[in-house]
Please model this.
Amino acid sequence: MPADRPGRYIYIRDDSKDEFWSATWQPVLKPLAEKKGQGSRVRGQGYECRHGMSYTTIKSEYDNIVAETTYFVPLKENLEVWLFSIKNNSKKKRSLAIFTYVEFCLWHAIMDMTDFQYTLNISKAVNEKDAVYHLTGYFPNVGRNDFAYFASSEKIKGFDCDRETFIGPYNSEANPLAVSRGKSFNSINSGGNPIASLCNRITLKPAEGKQFVFILGTSDDKKEADKFIGKYKDIKNAENEFAALREYWTKYFENYAAKTPDENVNLMVNTWNQYQCRTTFNWSRSASYYESGIGRGMGFRDSNQDTLGVVHAIPDKVKARIKELLANQFENGSSHHQFFPLTKKGEKGGYSDDPLWLILSVSGYIKETGNVDFLRETAPFTDSPHEEEVFEHLKRAIDYVAGSLGPHGLPLIGFADWNDCLNLMGKNKAAESVWVGQFLVWAAREVVKLSKTLSKNDDAKRYTKLASDMKDRINSLAWDGDWYIRAFDDDGNPVGSSKNNEGKIDLLTQAWAVISGISDDKRSVRCMDMVKRHLASRHGVMLITPPYTTYDPKIGAVGTFAPGLKENGGIFCHANPWAMIAEAILGRGAQAFDYYRKIAPAFRNEIADIHQTEPYVYSQYIAGSAHPAFGRGRNSWLTGSAAWNLVAITQYLLGVRADYEGLVVDPCVPAHWKNFKIRRVFRDAIYDIEVKNPKRVSKGVKDLVVDGKRIDGNIVPPFKDKRTHKVEAKMG
Ligand code: NOJ
Model:
């Protein structure tokens, strides 16, 4: 462990030696990269695995046979290509057998878990020409005809569709019987576990190589599947599709690129962080390595936040997603907690913050595109086909939250707020969230700006007052002396207070006091200093401290995690950027950057054995100091950490952010940074921005020159002329 099995395997067998190994090292585990003596590699052996944008390439060399497999999904096809090449680097002619192996999933996740015996008796996989078709069908009310297929570009010499037959009794994927005896069984699957294994045989002269394409696809139309099988008989088609994918990502990244003095920052910001953002946008919290796709779907709060990480590159797709989200709002302004991508069915959760996230995504979209008219477009509600303007949807979201207040006049926390596991509500139904109050202030102020754009002065007045009343209430009730408390429990006692024994301080209400602008300068500095003192660690900022040691029904699920894991004092990478943003707002560039580098995967590559999760994508959390595995990442990929870290570094540290009036240039960086550059597409023009820092300050733009002309303030206007504009910003 960690291991990810079963994978997409290719076994290579040298018939003359009765020996076999894997082109991907797993699952045979032959020592491909074994070192000999003083660190020099054994000649003829080696291993390399590279992950790139939408592909993985694994190269191996064993006994002078070099194999390289590139796995990718073409842009517009429901299939995965394995572009496989093999070369004989030895001086002898070699006769090799290539056995591929995939194990099919069984489509119906719930039935797999609840009635496995049923599935095992309906499974079906058969061979036809150079392919295997996985035809397991479910009872008619599932209503889908999907099947899967796996095919080879070359004529096959054998096949297996049945796992037990291929692997053989008491063997495993490491030594399948078919491979060790050197011959497929030509088994079909009819009940049991369906797989696809194809066998190709080749003879290679010295220095001779050969290429194959294997495809693994899904379809509901046999003709379409056979069309693709035909298409990929020609290697060129696979190479062209791979080139198209490369071109797609090259273009995507042209929308934003930074050149800073720190290579790790460049690596994250220009490729991997943006790439992860695209993945979270596509999948939200649906099916993945961590989520089965049954319990978690398109999270309402998650999906709204995910738009922040991609809106600069795919604004039209963001707009379409926001429309889907708007249609998950109820007429009363509340919203579903999530919906499922296939069925589109929503699920309510009683989370108090959910409705407000719409304001984040809509305002983000308008700032990026300038498309104010979007506010006048209409969308239905989940409980009514009646359509209202987008602006009205936003107002209802605020009104709903502002209308659900508890005894202190703060928003009721409901089942939970952003922190899913802070479940304070008891029989009094009175627990309140200070953080939702802060978020409400932020949202109301954003709606004030939108109201003014639409000349809706009454709305502007109403929401200004709402924000100001809530701000005053929080400041008079929730200041604990050194920081803001997090909530009031069901009996009106403070949570996240120095008076508590556990969970004394919570990151959220400190960072958001600054982000929402509710705290004055003194309190802002004080509460963020307390974050540094109590929550910051060498692996990032912990969510709370000290963690809860036992489950307390009055506090909720947070206490079910071991101290230091997840929301119970873990370093929540989703919430860390809020500390970075708050520090940037305060102008403390060194601190903001320190928080950034502590959790950014590229920096953690140096401690990969501690961090454990991929050193190129953010994890949801890193274990906090209370846990023995302090510093260990978990739950990578589908997490709000992706979008928010991109926002923090690009918009607040490098400091170029879209706003209603144009592109704001407001960097906050470590004072020793001399200069950096950003090239960014914004509203149909390209901005080539150079930031110089001759006085070595952390924050403050003194001069802004656009196309040779000095302009007042720090906002570059939108040109919308498809041309490139040179922006020079001098800090000082
Ligand atoms: C993960 C969830 O997807 C997200 O919505 C939530 O805010 C965080 N956990 C914190 O609980």
Q: What stands out?
A: Residues 285, 299, 301-302, 418-421, 567, 574 surround 1-deoxynojirimycin (CB under 6 Å). The chain is about 30% helix and 25% strand.
